Amino acid sequence: MKTIVITGSASGIGAATAQHYSAAGCRVIGIDLRGADIEADLSCASGRDKAISEVLQRSNGHIDSLICCAGLGGNHPPALVASVNYFGVTVLLDGLFEALRASGGNAVVVASVAATQGNWDGHPLREAFLAGNEEQARTLATDAGHGMLAYAASKHAIVCHIRAQSKIWGEAGVRLNAVAPGAVETPLLQQSMDDPLIGKATRDFLPPLGRRAQPAEIAQVIAFLASDAAVYVHGSLLVADGGIDAMSRPQRF
Ligand code: NAI
């Protein structure tokens, strides 16, 4: 039986992914703030340590897939967004790497189409993320103002991190990929729709496909990347956004 570890398993895309794997007869170990097998706060070092040690204990050090869905939208305090969306992912990837290697496993990180927008080249916030400097990233994220900037930067940086890890992880036989959803009907999107600053724009916007995604539709993309059908896909960002990225920058990819 395959062992699948899913962060953010209590809601939205993580919950849909957990459902997908449970229905397929896999053993799911969910991590979330509440309502999960392991209740841990991925915004801080102690919570990440707790998540890693409990996963290693429950899995006997063998994991087939790690799916990182836990995340916060841009309506949350920017420093918290930086901590959860970037360091809550990289620390888990590092901490569970050996357990993935032991099974010839793989990891999939849920980024966002926001990762592909804007130009972050040389931006101090991106550099702080990539240097692994959480304190500086939190300060710069706060200085940047609205949490949407921290959100976009954290998602862009996590994709950069995945690409940078592709050699080490590939040589270890552990595939590592990311998914970039657009607008998915989850509590996170609803919070953005209710935000006084970005709410109207979020509500009014529809992707080229003419509708927002359902969480289960993104779970299927995640499951594809984690499956043997994607055995040669590594270091990739799979955009599953109903056409948002293609529409917004048709000549850049
Ligand atoms: P959601 O809000 O339904 O689920 C996110 C889960 O992460 C929640 O269960 C929450 O408790 C958990 N979480 C948040 N902070 C945490 C912490 N400190 N420690 C542990 N768990 C924590 O949101 P959704 O939409 O399912 O988001 C999943 C991922 O997809 C996120 O990384 C998000 O950025 C990304 N995404 C979502 C999009 C959307 O339109 N819903 C679009 C693009 C990306």
From TrEMBL:
SUPFAM superfamilies in UniProt: NAD(P)-binding Rossmann-fold domains
Keywords: Oxidoreductase
GO molecular-function terms, A-Z: oxidoreductase activity
KW Oxidoreductase (keyword) present: yes
Superkingdom: Bacteria
InterPro entries: NAD(P)-bd_dom_sf, SDR_fam
Pfam families: adh_short, adh_short_C2
PANTHER family, per the entry: DEHYDROGENASES, SHORT CHAIN, ESTRADIOL 17-BETA-DEHYDROGENASE 8-RELATED
Entry's family note: Belongs to the short-chain dehydrogenases/reductases (SDR) family.
UniProt name for this protein: SDR family oxidoreductase
Organism, as annotated: Craterilacuibacter sinensis
